[in-house]
Amino acid sequence: METENGARWLSDEEQRTWRTHLEVSRLLTYQLERDLQPFGLTYNDYEILVNLSEAEDHQMRMSDLARATLQSKSRLSHQITRMENAGLVRRENCESDRRGLFAVLTDYGWETMKRVAPHHVAAVREHFIDLLSPQGLESLQAALEPVAKHLRGARGRA
Amino acid sequence: METENGARWLSDEEQRTWRTHLEVSRLLTYQLERDLQPFGLTYNDYEILVNLSEAEDHQMRMSDLARATLQSKSRLSHQITRMENAGLVRRENCESDRRGLFAVLTDYGWETMKRVAPHHVAAVREHFIDLLSPQGLESLQAALEPVAKHLRGARGRA
DNA sequence: TTGAATTCATTCAATATTCAACTTAATTTG
DNA sequence: CAAATTAAGTTGAATATTGAATGAATTCAA
């Protein structure tokens, strides 16, 4: 039950749970991505729309948006360029910090969000939420929140 | 509580749980990927090594491997080419079906696996398993297994 | 207050992924 | 059994992502 250098292997139950979590997380992303395809959006596009939609004035600084969506600045920069070409967002200068830029939701972006969100939520229900019992929901949150907290911290200590 | 087209939004608790799950799944992948970097492996590399290590004769058909690791045949093909160049696997013809190929773990691939696995397992413990209480572990499995089952099915019905 | 370090964001080149087209082999069917 | 269909896998071009380098504005510190 110990590896040669002293690390402890996973028990059968631990391994099963770990693999289930992994599988769910992969298949779910895959499925939700597919449910967004008919609307011409990737999951990444959608997440950015969500963030901007919930932000004050429908705008966020590039850095904040990158942090919120867990992507590198470089990746976000490309991503926003694409979404800009698609008419969903635009860049706007920041007066208080002239290095900075805002990504701003366009009217079309906001309309798109309002149109797509119900379908996305329905998919989240169908493939996840509605498959959990009330206790399932509750215990999931209870189990995962500490993990999330730990990982948020670990992310900083890069 | 209803969207215009009749879909039901998520309750606060549902939303919280959903977002926590999403966050954990993203940050965890990110973290494990980072823990593998010092060994010169991506998570994708590692998963393929795991699959081959557990397979009979350390070999699998390309299609099966693609299915097991949830990637397209094309992606796997490129991936295996890279791993072949890195000396971790090799391709071998399949006699019974001459269209087919096996991806086979090389000695070096197997040595790599034995060397890296303990560190990976330790990371899985540190960032996930050891943060769950015994009930946490159990209820997680209980909650997620039906979701996994559902999604496995949905995947087929593409 | 000036020079050094940091932050914001982009760009370019190297990698990786996707998608459609293709080749070859196996299977089906009329 | 011949033609059509399906399956296994690869390829190449288009697209996306990564990581290092860059430029420009801000902050820090002596």
TrEMBL record, chains A, B:
| Alphabetized PROSITE patterns for the sequence | HTH_MARR_2
| Protein origin, superkingdom | Bacteria
Q: Which residues cross the membrane?
A: none
Native species: Streptantibioticus rubrisoli
Span of domain HTH marR-type:
14-149
Read off the Pfam families from this record: MarR_2
Protein name, per record: MarR family transcriptional regulator
SMART domains linked to this entry:
HTH_MARR
